[in-house]
């Protein structure tokens, strides 16, 4: 402690009243003054006893309670002697300080010591009588000691100050010793009290004992465990002198040392004082007492037993505060300012004058030659562009990153276009353009109504089934249109389409569905029908059964039931020739080949081939035909089987017949009883020829005579004839070959009632009408006589006809069956 | 293109686009070398699978000559480990070379490319124009590995002179070698070396791919739709992990350049504001290009399963290149300087403020100033007169139509000429500026909104101010305040529409799509459009005479709707069709009845008369009953329908069904419109009544 300060303090304390004392107690820095204060306090106490007693009492009322002490009556008595001694030592200490510090202090100390003596003397005198006074003294002492404890814990600096004080103490050892002797005598006088006395002093001199490095006196208190011990632990740096000093005083204390006090549980004493006398335990309270005390004593909650002395100690308000502070883990000293201004020992501010004051070396001002060389090199490199600054490099890199665009299609020529690596590139189809529904403000009909919304929501799981990919919404103004959520996703899908979906060119039909419907001629379009009669070919006496044009269309041949075949000129209606066959003629047909002039006529069961003669057609043709047919072709060794032979027999024509015009006759095994005219043999023919009279009876006739008809048809080249006989059973179809005069039976089995058979005009097909069906046989594969096409006609297939196509007559006819 | 971006997918594209049939050698392995299998994996349609496969890219990208086998092992391993369920698929899709050797057979059994794969790839390639021959059945013990070196030896030398393919192969090879170097450096922990490698990453130049895909400029223009849409989208993107910042910046630059080209060429034809964004249609060299620009704030984070930005980014990489070249060509054909430059220099104090490049870029992006032209070239405004070529079908009417169209387009180009527009803050700036400038107008906006405003709002010469708010406090008398839809509708109508419907705060008429094909039949045309097409057309709600009829009808409809609402559970669609049929039948039957009723008595009379009197009467001219005839025709047609060829029957049926469907749709739209109009009318009436009542009360 700096001397001036202590001096100041002292001056203060000296003219202090009690209030000032208190304030000084509170000052943590002035711990060293404790001793003086105590003595002073004591002094004042002793001097103005009557005055102070009251005030003390008052104070006690605040700090302690009398009742607590009142129980300890005995102890109070014991304390009496102790008090004095402690006071003595106190005064000594303080005296020492003062003597050192001030010149003034000498007188003080003298006075004080004198006072102390007088006090002790007085106390001796009023030993038993003035109990109250002693008690107050004792209380004061205790209080002070406790305050000491609280304050003593603070800082090291304070301790050092204390050590200084102690040094001073040492100088005054002699005086002390004297007093000790006196004390000892007093102790001896009051043996019983001495024990307590010692402990009291111990407590009173806590700071000293602590600094001596001894056991913590404070730990004897039953303080709660929460108190961190390191706060209470003594500072390390101890002074030898100090310990020496304190050792003197410790002689009076309990000498058991650091042993667990419960060892003394079974003994009546607590330990031993320096002289080896027992320190007796204060009377123990049993639980009832305890309880009663708890009930009576309002201070019970702060009463603590000191294990070393066995005394009850009532904790003062300060103690409680202290404990509370420690509990809160704050700095125990309530005076300590936690928020003191920070003193910056090391500042960042640069001083004007450096602390280092020696001058710079001379060479530090001279430029380095080697460095200069290096720099010049670098500068040169920079100049020449060999080296670049970082900035330049970054710039370059940036420029490099930037794409350079140029005229890529500048030189487009043919060859270049051929270079395309892709042949037949199929460009990706474009996305469909938006409809009205996609508008931000669509017409109201495009917005979804309730039902459509329901459907929309229903398809939540399968959004691709929805009508739109987006929900048509109407925004009242443009600024309210939000961004489209699925935009990125849609673009992504498009990307996937572009590179993952294979593409192919698909032909798109640009036709209307109506174009696919075939255009049929309506009956109206076929008009005009032959409504008026142009010519009448008169001459037959009976029903005309059949008629046919020659291939050129110049002549018409007709066969009648009157047994004649007449050849007419088409344009005039003149009868050119009449051939009387005797039997009724049911069928006549001109040969399709133009190189022959032949008419086939079916008369009864015979098929006759007639040459109409020289007048009709080309003269030469008739001649060649005659020549051809004059002699039968040499019959090769072709064996005609029985079945065929019996079916058809080629007859030799008698000269009589020859004259009449018959060239060949084929007799069939079925005689013909009736003949009947075919319906719709040829559309053209009918148009020109038939009158409605005939057609009327048609259906009826057909029904009647269907079974008995002999029917034939020419092959397109005129060499073959197919003859059908409805009642011929399996031999109902016979094919005759003119050039070789031979017959064939194409079918082995009867398919049914054969009505009619026809050759295809150009191709090797044979059509056979059987019952309701028409069959179609290819002749090229003769071995396999299969029905290839099976056409079921809606009506009774009375006949089969081939309709010529428009472009080429007969040559390339598609077979439409009527 | 930055060095860091090695896009395997690009390689795949590149390879694909240049692969010649002869290269393929009938062997898939050649197309997807083992080292490219990652790239190849991107080919498969299972993107999830791709993503997972990419994790193993470090396994796959190896030097093929040495470690093909090991990479195959690795592949097999991960296929087994990771995708037990996908194994079959993987087997189908993993583009691996064909390897046949006894020792390897067990290894390859699972991951041999199947024929299915081959055909899939072939199909995909075919659409790009390549034809592959099926994999050859090689003799036993022969290995056909995709050894790059041997490939190069085999094909590279002979094809060198022809060009790109071998170069590409080399490119890929070199890239792989470089990657290996980097990896090696990393493995050796020589980070400085690695850094250096990464910094000097070799560039790949695939300009020739653009040229190959689009041998002529017109080809490129034809395929520009997707390119523009994607670029416009990317120009709005923030920096993403898969989309580097510079890419979106480049997209922005290129799109702005393209828009400038459109402005300079006045090529814009149609615009449409849809829910998805703004559609623009331009015409360059006879090619129509349509693209979409998304609305503001178009970027939204996407889930990984839905969108793979890497694929899109790869596309964009190619597209930016293409668009750059197209821009260059366009600018040169328009006599503009490329890259775009502004004719005026700016004041010094402006320049001080910011980086000059950004400053200029922003001014250009403002699109408010026409770009500087190549010196010496005058602005040629007039387009040459249309050449008329004698075509085969020299239809004078068609020619006339074409001429008319050309005339209209010419008019359209100067639609806004001499007009001054001012954009309010709330109006989307870019689309409007683009449109107005395309048609010759002058635009400005609040200078705080964007740079490049040329005149302030206080300018008295402004003709139109475009406003998108319900009301404005301070209004100038000298100008019209219109909503932005007016601009779009005017452009589509090709004239300045009357503004009374578009005034500030007015309820806008519907915005119609200009892309509806008018020639096509069976297209529903809303009454607004019909009114636009011919001014004589009156929307049916106008005529007051038929009001009662409408009301009746509405009553009926209401009943119907009630019924419908009751029977909603049955199935809305069915219900609708039923209703539709009913209605249609009703129409016809009502007509039927009337006609028949008209006809029958007369017929009977005639018959009676005939019976009564056999006498000769004066000939009455035969009067054909049109309805009867119709019925007959219908019957005849039905008969003929039966004779539709078997080959065409299904086609015919489907076409008919389509027709019916479209008819139904139109019917539905008409109905909805009618209902809506009635509703509006009702409301109006009620409103009127209310007002009247109020007036009376007062």
3D architecture notes:
The complex is a heterodimer of chains A (818) and B (698). Chain A is an alpha+beta fold and 818 residues long. Chain A has 27 helices and 21 strands. Chain A has a five-stranded antiparallel β-sheet. Chain A has a four-stranded antiparallel β-sheet with strand order 5-6-7-8, with no helix packed on it. In chain A, 33% of the residues are buried. In chain B, 32% of the residues are buried. In chain B, the strands form two sheets. Chain B has a four-stranded parallel β-sheet with strand order 5-4-6-7, with helices on one face. Chain B has a three-stranded antiparallel β-sheet with strand order 1-2-3. With 698 residues, chain B is mainly alpha-helical. Mean pLDDT of chain B is 72; it is low at 1-75, 77-113, 132-164, 540-570 and 589-598. Chain B is extended, with a radius of gyration of 35 Å. Chain B has 28 helices and seven strands. The interface between A and B is large, with 80 and 118 residues. Chain B: It is found in: Nucleus, Nucleolus; Nucleus, Nucleoplasm. Chain B: Residues 531-541, 575-584, 621-633 have a biased composition (Basic and acidic residues). Chain B: Pfam families: BRCT_2, Pescadillo_N.
Compact overview of the structure:
The complex is a heterodimer of chains A (818) and B (698). Chain A contains 27 helices and 21 strands. Chain A is an alpha+beta fold and 818 residues long.
User: What summary fits the major beta sheet of chain B?
Assistant: 4 strands, parallel
Strand order of the largest sheet of chain B: 5-4-6-7
Radius of gyration of chain A: 77 Å
Q: Indicate the low-confidence ranges of chain B by residue numbers.
A: 1-75, 77-113, 132-164, 540-570, 589-598
Number of domains of chain B: 4
The total beta strand count of chain B reads 7
Oligomer: heterodimer
Let me know the average pLDDT of chain A. Answer: 66
What portion of residues of chain B belong to β-strands? 5-15%
Q: Point out poorly predicted stretches of chain A.
A: 1-132, 143-157, 185-252, 672-708, 783-800, 802-818
Major protein interface: A-B, 80 and 118 residues
Taking strands numbered 1, 2, ... along the chain, how are they ordered across the largest sheet of chain A?
A: 9-10-11-13-12
Shape of chain A from CA axes? elongated
